[in-house]
């Protein structure tokens, strides 16, 4: 093996990172509560539940990265006494704190919806007065896939919202941005400062969880350079190494940043087949100090999540050009179990394929809408 | 996991099969002399050197395949008492015996160079009289990458050739086919009889070992349907399941079959990036009883072997669009250590990339010739 990369987390993102690392003779190890995790087949898993786990994990690899966005900064601080983490601690800490994150966006002139810090019922009332309604109230730390959020639509919800989220102490109130769609931009920065960006993904959600992404996002020619500019500012400011994701809202006033993720992202899974070099391979290349690969699109691609229940593999693979990626996870409501990549030849094919897929998937997603490329 | 596939052999072909199996939640196990083999990172390896190894291997999986073309038929016979092997025993036994193989080609009207069975000095002399010179004398069983062969160019070499290869007892003398180039066709047959064929590869050798393959083979539009027809005859006749490779010579009289390999093939490694569905994934799909994926070419591709010594990974990955596949093998003269896939945009790019690559590779291959797509 050339080098070993230790990864905080051992879920499907770590699994796909390790899959991309293997042909480069790079072995991965993982730090995860449960040693029976999706990444386990590809390398040793050190349990975060055992006393010696972190030290053993730190000893297991040459250089480190993460796939778990809530990787404790305290663990990172132990690690960085002796080893290097990519991405940098500052990026991780910023992304884990919605106020720090918005503040960074402000600093770099990346538009965000107006927001206020909220730490009391009074400050919540003030935020409602300042921002108007509706607003989204979120915990400053924690929460994902729609959890830890409250959408406030009328003033009589203020007490309920505070009762639900107030115990978290530190909240953020954000203006409800009127957006036509959500897109994400994913980019990678190498150790030499080289930045490469994938095409914008248009993301569709179902019950707060990503349902599917279309790449390149339709009608995004004008948006792509703007999004690239925003994420490049972030990467360079943070002296970032590895893959960074920026979720954006498309509004009549242009792109608004929603949040960033210091890792490979569900909306980038399409790149395994759809790009010359995937987000997983380029992340590994960056962390290992290797040159980055081309992020060019090979062919327009749709990535569909498998959520809660598995379809029959034979049904999925019978679809023209379909690729199936399963994560070796047991079924549970709302759980991401795998994804499907479709690379249709044209828009008509896509609509047909998505209709077929909607029939196959046991959990109906947001696939019934007409799709276009 | 959906299913477990046991693979005879644990080299790079098994490694790449298991890599393709992983996203389908299919786990592989391996049967190999050395447990420290390229596939070891992806599944348990049962040693063929231990007494219990074969039985443990048979117990380890639901269905079986192979990546080692010299898999002993005796082992297969033990296996098939309780489990199923894809491809079928008959295909393996035929490919392991050059006389049986040529006889099958004859039976299916697939052109081969004139040949004679040779089992004595007298029959060798008779073969020379019948076929003329030059001829290639080969052992009927064993031998690969140019080993176990003798090219006879004049009658005074007959005694030397016999002294060298005669002890093998069973030989075949083949007319020296005057060919302009060598190509290979790879196809896969599913359990339902569905056959899919990849584009012809044009293969270039260096010291008897495959140096690089260009896909689609240049100027092969007329050859493709003929080659497809030949390999489809073989697949259907043998009731084959899995990937089969047929090596062919391009002559003024058309295509001549050289030999077949009952497995994924080095000249198909391009398909990992260059085809919608790779030879490895389709082989796994076939063995697991799943529908086959499209074998369409995504973009013209060149696959270059890394032989004997490793180049620097950073040098290879700095080439535009290059993909690196290392097999985790130690360096040794003539050993296949990995391969590189290039997907140039056009012929000019290819020539430039190959020149750059020739400078990077420590062992010079047949890359100096002008390349075209």
TrEMBL record, chains A, B:
Reactions catalysed: 5-amino-1-(5-phospho-beta-D-ribosyl)imidazole + hydrogencarbonate + ATP = 5-carboxyamino-1-(5-phospho-D-ribosyl)imidazole + ADP + phosphate + 2 H(+)
Keyword presence, Isomerase: no
Binding site for ATP: 98, 138, 143-149, 174-177, 182, 205, 258-259
EC number per UniProt: 6.3.4.18
One Pfam assignment: RS_preATP-grasp-like
PROSITE patterns: ATP_GRASP (PS50975)
Domain ATP-grasp: start-end pairs: 102-288
Pathway: Purine metabolism; IMP biosynthesis via de novo pathway; 5-amino-1-(5-phospho-D-ribosyl)imidazole-4-carboxylate from 5-amino-1-(5-phospho-D-ribosyl)imidazole (N5-CAIR route): step 1/2
Keywords: ATP-binding, Ligase, Nucleotide-binding, Purine biosynthesis
The UniProt record lists the keyword Transferase: no
GO molecular function (one): metal ion binding
GO CC term, one of those recorded: cytosol
Entry-linked InterPro entries: ATP-grasp, ATP-grasp_carboxylate-amine, ATP_grasp_subdomain_1, PreATP-grasp_dom_sf, PurK, PurK_C, PurT/PurK_preATP-grasp, Rudment_hybrid_motif
A single GO BP: 'de novo' IMP biosynthetic process
Function: Catalyzes the ATP-dependent conversion of 5-aminoimidazole ribonucleotide (AIR) and HCO(3)(-) to N5-carboxyaminoimidazole ribonucleotide (N5-CAIR). Catalyzes the ATP-dependent conversion of 5-aminoimidazole ribonucleotide (AIR) and HCO(3)- to N5-carboxyaminoimidazole ribonucleotide (N5-CAIR).
Protein family according to the UniProt entry: Belongs to the PurK/PurT family.
Assembly with partners or alone: Homodimer.
Protein known as: N5-carboxyaminoimidazole ribonucleotide synthase
UniProt organism field: Acinetobacter venetianus (strain ATCC 31012 / DSM 23050 / BCRC 14357 / CCUG 45561 / CIP 110063 / KCTC 2702 / LMG 19082 / RAG-1)
């Amino acid at each position: 093996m050339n080098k070993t990369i230790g990864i905080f987390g051992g879920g499907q993102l770590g699994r796909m990172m390790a899959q991309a690392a293997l042909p480069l003779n790079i072995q991965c190890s993982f730090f995860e509560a449960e040693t029976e995790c999706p990444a386990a087949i590809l390398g040793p898993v050190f349990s975060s539940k055992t006393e010696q786990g972190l030290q053993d994990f730190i000893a297991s690899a040459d250089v480190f990265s993460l796939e778990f966005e809530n990787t404790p900064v305290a663990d990172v601080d132990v690690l960085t006494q002796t080893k290097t983490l990519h991405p940098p601690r500052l990026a991780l800490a910023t992304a884990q704190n919605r106020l720090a994150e918005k503040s960074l966006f402000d600093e770099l002139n990346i538009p965000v919806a107006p927001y206020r810090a909220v730490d009391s019922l009074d400050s919540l009332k003030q935020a409602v007065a300042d921002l108007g309604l509706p607003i989204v109230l979120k915990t400053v730390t924690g929460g994902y896939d729609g959890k830890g959020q409250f959408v406030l639509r009328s003033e009589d919800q203020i007490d309920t919202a505070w009762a639900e989220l107030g115990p978290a102490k530190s909240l953020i109130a954000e203006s409800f941005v009127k957006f036509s769609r959500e897109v994400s931009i994913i980019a990678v920065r190498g150790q030499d400062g080289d930045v490469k960006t994938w095409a914008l993904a248009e993301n569709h959600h179902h019950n707060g969880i990503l349902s599917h992404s279309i790449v390149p996002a339709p009608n995004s020619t004008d948006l792509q350079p703007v999004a690239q500019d925003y994420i490049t500012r972030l990467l360079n400011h943070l002296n970032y190494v590895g893959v960074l994701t920026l979720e954006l809202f498309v509004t009549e006033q242009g792109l608004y940043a929603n949040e960033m993720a210091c890792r490979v992202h569900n909306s980038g899974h399409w790149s395994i087949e759809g790009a010359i070099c995937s987000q997983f391979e380029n992340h590994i290349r960056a962390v290992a100090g290797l040159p980055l690969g081309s992020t060019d699109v090979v062919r327009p691609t749709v990535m569909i999540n498998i959520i809660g229940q598995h379809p029959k593999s034979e049904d999925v693979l019978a679809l023209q050009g379909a690729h199936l990626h399963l994560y070796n996870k047991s079924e549970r409501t709302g759980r991401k179990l795998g994804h499907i990549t479709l690379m249709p030849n044209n828009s008509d094919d896509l609509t047909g394929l998505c209709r077929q897929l909607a029939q196959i998937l046991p959990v109906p997603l947001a696939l019934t809408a007409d799709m276009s490329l």
